[in-house]
Structure to design on (451 residues):
């Protein structure tokens, strides 16, 4: 990483500002009172962010599009649920070592939106095969323990094979991590409020819980000390995926306190926070072909990565992928130099981990030969990181100013301009020329209430 200097920070700030569009809507000169609509947009307003799908294999693209359509949910949720679910089954089955740092596909994905956006239906659909598998292996475990007890407990107690964390207390979570130290575990909950409520329920242990989770994200060893020696344990190389949803009006409650913001925990989260869009009222059902295709793929993942003594596959970056990553890393360094506080520095620095881990799953989905991450895989993952960075900044803005509404979308901004100034007929084409990538037809659709 290049050394940070005041000159370099100034250059980085200028570079970032150059790529931003600042708009101020001022009152007419004959008006003394300030206009209520005086919006400063520090992001490029001509760009609406969405989680891209072009880097996924064709069958997975069709899968997420159909789930999004039938569940009346943003496509962003479906893309995140797909990759997060795959990563939660693979766990430590894939490994990428780059610059002497070992990466596993560990994601803390947080789907943000109100209760009508379709977070839970999407997650439930993708997780259904996992829940069925978990129920089956636990039933087999109960039977094996019963047989073991009938045999006077001869030999070792049957092992627990379920890696999904059901009890969200820190004690139970760490025990599951210990049992699955070789492969890893996963927390899959539709509402993350229950997760936060458990690990921070005692003020005296909240700091320790968050510290342990931060170590887990980096696969660093954690040690659990207890007065009872039999309850002391060490997890040598923990792995824990955390995936779930949270309502946007609860962000401040869960993430807005000082401990969460400045411990590094929130910066390790990848937020999926779709820009405003109307929810469809489609009644179509997911086809049997798509449903069976997903179930068959999950079965393949379990047969490959959930077996006893399964090997870990080592992944590498192609020369093109490595060059793209280094270029992206330099851009992050510019943003770190220009950042106004340590919170943002930490946020940008974590993107390096995210892009490598995301690229691992993308390459796996594309069945790359010899587990090599291609330049295309890396380029797609970098575009996804632009989305996650955008969402993280939206969350940051909301937890600092919980009363403030999210940044306006292009269409909402055009409508507000029209409400304030009443655009004359025929001026839409002239207005479109003022905005990059904004056509007259898009402005017309915005004014008519369409997207």
């Amino acid at each position: 990483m290049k050394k940070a200097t005041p000159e370099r920070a100034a250059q980085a700030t200028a570079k970032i500002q150059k790529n931003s569009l600042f708009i101020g809507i001022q009152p007419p000169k004959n008006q003394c009172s300030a206009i209520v609509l005086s919006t400063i947009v520090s992001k490029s307003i001509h760009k609406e962010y969405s989680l891209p799908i072009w880097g996924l294999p064709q069958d997975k693209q069709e899968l997420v599009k159909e789930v999004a359509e039938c569940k009346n949910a943003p496509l962003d949720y479906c893309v995140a649920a797909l990759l997060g679910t795959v990563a939660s089954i693979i766990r430590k089955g894939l490994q990428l070592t780059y610059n002497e740092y070992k990466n596993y596909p560990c994601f803390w994905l947080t789907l943000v939106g109100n209760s009508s956006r379709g977070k839970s239906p999407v997650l439930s659909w993708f997780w259904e095969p996992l829940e069925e598998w978990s129920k089956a292996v636990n039933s087999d475990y109960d039977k094996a323990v019963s047989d073991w007890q009938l045999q006077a407990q001869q030999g070792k107690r049957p092992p627990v094979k379920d890696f999904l964390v059901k009890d969200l207390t820190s004690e139970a979570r760490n025990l599951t991590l210990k049992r699955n130290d070789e492969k890893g575990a996963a927390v899959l909950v539709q509402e993350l409020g229950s997760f936060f409520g458990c690990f921070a329920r005692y003020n005296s242990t909240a700091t320790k819980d968050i510290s342990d989770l931060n170590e887990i994200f980096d696969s660093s060893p954690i040690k659990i000390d207890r007065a009872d020696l039999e309850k002391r344990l060490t997890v040598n190389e923990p792995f824990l995926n955390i995936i779930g949803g949270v309502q946007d009006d609860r962000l401040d409650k869960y993430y807005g306190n000082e401990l969460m913001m400045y411990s590094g925990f929130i910066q390790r989260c990848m937020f999926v926070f779709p820009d405003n869009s109307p929810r469809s009222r489609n009644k179509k059902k997911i086809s049997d072909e798509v449903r069976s295709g997903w179930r068959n793929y999950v079965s393949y993942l379990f047969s490959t990565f959930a077996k006893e003594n399964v090997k870990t596959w080592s992944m590498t970056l192609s020369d093109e992928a490595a060059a793209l990553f280094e270029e992206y890393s330099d851009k992050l360094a510019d943003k770190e130099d220009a950042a106004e506080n340590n919170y943002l520095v930490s946020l940008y620095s974590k993107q390096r981990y995210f892009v490598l881990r995301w690229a691992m799953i993308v390459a796996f989905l594309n069945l790359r030969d010899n587990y090599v991450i291609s330049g295309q895989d890396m380029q797609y993952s970098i575009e996804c990181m632009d989305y996650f960075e955008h969402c993280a900044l939206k969350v940051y803005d909301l937890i600092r100013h919980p009363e403030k509404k999210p940044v306006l979308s292009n269409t909402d901004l055009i409508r507000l301009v029209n409400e304030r100034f009443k655009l004359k007929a025929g001026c839409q084409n002239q207005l479109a020329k003022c905005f990059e990538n904004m056509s007259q037809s898009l402005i017309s659709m915005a004014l008519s209430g369409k997207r």
Q: What stands out?
A: The beta strands are 94-98, 101-103, 108-112, 185-191, 222-224, 233-235, 240-246, 270-272, 313-317, 372-373. Residues 16-46 have pLDDT under 50 and may be disordered. The first strand starts at residue 94 and ends at 98.
